[in-house]
Design brief:
By secondary structure, this protein is α+β, with helices and mostly antiparallel strands. It contains 7 helices and 4 strands. The strands form 2 sheets. The chain has a two-stranded parallel ribbon. Strands 3-4 form a two-stranded antiparallel sheet.
Length: 154
Amino acid sequence: MTLPLAFDTASRLWRERIVQAPDYTVISNDRMFRAHLSGSPVLESEYHDVQRLKHSLLQRYMDTTIEDALPGCVLETQDGPVYRITRSHALSLPEKDTEGVMQHLLQDLTLVYGIGRRKERDLKRMGYRTICDLLHHRRFQDSAREILATLHDG
C-alpha cells in the first residue's frame, strides 16, 4: 500500500520545517535584557564561536570516516544499530568533595522549579539562603522537598 502523494509531500515539508526550527533563539548583539524573552537564549557571540568551531572541525575531518575519527564498533539493538565508541582517556580527577558539592548545590535556589536568578536574589535578601530554608516557604516548599529528595538519593 502506498501513501497518497499529498500525504507524502505534507510529511516531507513538515520534517523540513522542523529541521529548520532550532530549539534556541540567537540574541543579536548579545543584548542580555532580551535573553529572558526566549526559552533557550544563545548570545550571538557564542553562536558565532560555535559556528566557527563547527566549521573548523568539519574541515579537519572532511575526508575522515567515523571509524578513523572515533574508533568503535556498530552494535545492533532493539531500536536499531548504534555506534559504540571504544576509545578511552585517562583522567585525573580531584578528590571527591561530596560535602562541598552538596553545600554548593543546596545554596543554588535556581534548582527549584519556578526560581530564576532574579527570584533567587530576592529570596536570599529575605533570608532564604538554601533549599532547606525553602521548606518554610509556602510557594516553593513542595518543589524544594522534591529537590532535596533527589539530592539525598544521589
